[in-house]
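Internal tracking record. Fields below are filled automatically when a chain is submitted to the structure queue. Please do not edit lines marked as system-generated. If the sequence contains nonstandard residues, flag them in the REMARKS field before resubmitting.
Queue: standard
Priority: normal
Entity type: single polypeptide chain
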Amino acid sequence: MKTALITGATSGIGHQLVLDHLNEGWRVIACGRNTAALAALKQGERGEHIVAAQFDVTDADQARAVLTEVLEGTLGGSALGRVILNAGTCEYMDVDAWDTTQFARVIEANLLGTSHCLAGVLPHLKRGSELVLVDSLARLVPFTRAEAYGASKAAMHYLARSLEVDLGDRGVRVMAVSPGFVDTPLTRRNTFGMPALMSVEDASAAIMKGMAAGKRTIRFPFRLSGPLTLMSWLSEGLQVRMCRWLKKNQ
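SYSTEM-GENERATED OUTPUT FOLLOWS
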């Protein structure tokens, strides 16, 4: 039985990815902070194939210690089949009341949290393993108030590409996932319109399909990723003008 490790497993896309991997016959190491939600996964259908790993990705020592203990106890020297580093957060900045603590909180959860998990999982990735980093379509263009979130996700994408270079000789496939708006507890806090909003079921299905096809970058939904990709090919000045227009008309 192949083993997948998924962070952010207790809600949103991560939770659905756990269920979809179980349905495809994987054993899943489900990682999250919420002890009750992890217990509920264990008690659900195919719960016997779930290994719960409770930790906070922003705590470097805790993340590495828990991952090392769980992986050594679960794998018995075999390789991880797949790692999906999905945990993260989103907060929107206010340039008239800049909050460095808020900015740091987003970077710490999205970027440093990924690094903390990498420290624990990289030793267990061997030839044939897959490493998947979840960024966002927001990385493509300079959206209003997305200084922290967009910067963290752009860095995540660069991180994936750089890891692809350095893990290539080891035979590890690295993929980046760039979702649009997905209906999760995090996005339900948004107070603006979210075009092409997707369900977690559809988002997870798109990720599963993209991983099965071995895509280096998985972008969805196309009705949003297509226009944003085209925008990203424009000059930076034109991108900024278009995003200013979007800000005024949202």
